Amino acid sequence: MEPIRQHHGLVYPLNRANIDTDQIIPKQFLKRIERQGFGQFLFYNWRFNDDGAAREDFSLNQDKYAGASILVAGENFGCGSSREHAPWALQDFGFKVIIAPSFADIFYNNCTKNGILPVKLSEAEIETIVKKAEATKYLLTVNLEEQSVYDNAGFQTAFELPPYQREMLLNGWDEIAVTLTHEEKITAYEQLRS
Amino acid sequence: MAEPKTIIEKIWEQHVVHQEEGKPDLLYIDLHLVHEVTSPQAFEGLRMNGRKVRRPDRTFATMDHNVPTLDRYFVKDPVSKKQMETLKKNCEEFNVFLADIHHPDQGIVHVIGPELGLTQPGKTIVCGDSHTSTHGAFGALAFGIGTSEVEHVLATQTLWQAKPKTLNVKVNGELGTGVTAKDLILAIIAKFGVRFGTGYVIEYTGDAIRNLTMEERMTVCNMSIEAGARAGLISPDETTFAYLRGKRYAPEGEDFDAAVEKWQALATDEGARYDATVEIDASQVEPQVTWGTNPSMCIPISATIPVPEAAETASDQDEIKRALEYMGLEAGKPIANVPVDHVFIGSCTNSRLSDLRKAAEIVRGKKVNPAVQAIVVPGSQTVKLAAEAEGLNQIFKEAGFQWREAGCSMCLAMNDDIVPAGERCASTSNRNFEGRQGTGARTHLVSPEMAAAAAIEGHFVDVRNYTAKIYS
């Protein structure tokens, strides 16, 4: 996967709690056998009418969010199904960072396996970001090395991330290759247990 | 004396392959269940890197999500068909056993694992499916994973996992007559919310849990993920062992007795400490119906639909408003008056033989309301044949239900079993998210008994009144 060290980009605020993976990518698009091409289906039922026309009442369709790469959402983002198609769709659409007060466990993991940076901030910080991003074109910088988020107008905060996930994201390592360096231990475990 | 431990800690310690400061543990995986939707990209990853499946003997595949339930051999959607064919090719290439559409063991992955005896106490079990928590009913540590992790397990038979926190969900008292395991887990999620289990593995304890059958325990553990917990389990006991005895992949004879001894030792020790504990009184639980767009938006059948203004915060009010709008419901009205267009009895939550038996008892000799389309989708081919041997199919068909072939079906509508936009379904499945059963479809989660009664009446009804004579 692509390493991610620092990202500077446009913020798209979707201030709802409990956005589930069925909303991020509806089930009718899970049938493809590739990893690519899911971006067009992101938030499909919210973005499009039955006839395929873009819904004006859904904010992601607004011009001012075109090219957004930082998604800011409410609590428990990515709950529900384990479908990795959800982070694939977000990434393919152009999102590189997702900021929320909390994430569902499986979704959080899936992000870090794909070079998407999940950032947990407090509800108050998110409220600040959402307000700014709703009002104007709002850019943020997210620095994984320093574990910081800041804008050019004085907003700055820090975030936590487990050290292992941080290292994997910073280096873009192939996790399987890392694990296979422990091959002898896996074999020893299997011999002991069988 | 050794420090008392929970079953979660015991299973964890038995599976650590490698431990290192500042890293998650490298955990060995005993059983990897595979299905057609979340595996193709994982197999492709192996191919691209010239890797093999490390332990085909610990890997078991089936097809369930896309499988048609009318004519199972005719997959209309070419993309679904390709996904199923891809699984077949991958299993052949990587030497993985596949219970495909022609195989008598085919069924929903979380139904067939237990019924074949693949699911056993103390195992670590994963699958690219969030309802893998179902297998926790046996005292296994079972959790859903994404496709990257599927590839990782295929290649290494391990996963990097941070040790989870432990959460005791203690269910005191006894469930009332006509109140089911489904009502219990819905009531738990309604009370504590959709994220109280995030970061935890749940152990369900207490008298009400001990009194559940294995199939009821599976229903409870199945929905752990709807509370945010990747895994939920129950310490094994005589109920567990009795269920497993004689199952195809369970140990036999003396080996079984030896296994039982090991399994007994897994149960949580007296005095073991959890990171958190919540309690609920089973005797207070009524039959439940969800009204909204996540499983915590759930009320007893006697209750009225929530009023947004009664919620404390503005964001909660917004969430309720949006849900009511999507669901086409009026705040303050009794849920029992809400008419249904569809009834779905099936899914990894409620499609086992006992679920079908209970629903059949409700519909026996009655007729499905003419305004309702009702289908029964057994969880596996084995369940289907067993139900037919008892004549359950006849009871359902005479009442006006459609009797289908095994698969995930209308739980997530990846096959042709779709609820049309704006229509309402009483469903025994596990998720009432927007669009889950079809774009614009409105899902109400209920028990099989409640779904069956709704099919007959054409609206929700308190199954306890409805069935007084059945339970007496």
Essential attributes:
heterodimer; A: 194 residues; alpha/beta; Aconitase, domain 4; 7 strands; globular; B: 472 residues; Aconitase, domain 3; 2 domains; 17 helices; Acnase/IPM_dHydase_lsu_aba_1/3 (chain B)
Plain-language structure description:
The complex is a heterodimer of chains A (194) and B (472). Chain A is an alpha/beta fold and 194 residues long. Chain A has one domain (6-193): Aconitase, domain 4, CATH 3.20.19. Helices cover 33% and strands 16% of the residues of chain A. A 7-stranded mixed β-sheet of chain A has the order 4-3-2-1-5-6-7. The longest helix of chain A is centred in the middle third of the chain and has 13 residues, at 123-135. Chain A is globular and about 60 Å long. The model of chain A has no long low-confidence stretch (mean pLDDT 97). Chain B is of the alpha/beta class and 472 residues long. In chain B, the strands form 5 sheets. A 5-stranded parallel β-sheet of chain B has the order 5-4-3-6-7, with helices on one face. In chain B, strands 17-16-15-18-19 form a 5-stranded parallel β-sheet, with helices on one face. Chain B has a 4-stranded parallel β-sheet with strand order 11-10-9-12. The mean pLDDT of chain B is 97. At the A-B interface, helix 4, helix 7 and helix 8 of A face helix 2, helix 3, helix 5 and helix 11 of B.
List the helices and strands and how they pair.
The complex is a heterodimer of chains A (194) and B (472).
Chain A: E1 6-14, H1 21-24, H2 44-47, E2 70-73, H3 85-93, E3 97-100, H4 105-112, E4 117-120, H5 123-135, E5 139-143, E6 148-150, E7 156-158, H6 163-171, H7 175-180, H8 183-193
Chain B: H1 7-15, E1 16-18, E2 25-28, E3 31-34, H2 40-48, E4 59-62, H3 78-94, E5 97-99, H4 109-116, E6 124-127, E7 141-144, H5 147-156, E8 158-161, E9 165-172, H6 181-192, E10 200-205, H7 207-210, H8 214-222, E11 231-233, H9 238-244, H10 253-266, E12 276-281, E13 288-290, E14 298-300, H11 314-327, E15 342-345, H12 353-363, E16 373-376, H13 381-389, H14 392-399, E17 402-403, E18 424-427, E19 442-445, H15 448-457, H16 463-466, H17 468-471
Parallel strand pairs in B: 3-4, 3-6, 4-5, 6-7, 9-10, 9-12, 10-11, 15-16, 15-18, 16-17, 18-19
Antiparallel strand pairs in B: 1-2, 2-8, 13-14
Helix pairs in contact in B: 2-5, 6-8, 12-14, 12-15
Pathway (chain B): Amino-acid biosynthesis; L-leucine biosynthesis; L-leucine from 3-methyl-2-oxobutanoate: step 2/4
Catalytic activity (chain B): (2R,3S)-3-isopropylmalate = (2S)-2-isopropylmalate; citrate = D-threo-isocitrate
EC number (chain B): 4.2.1.33
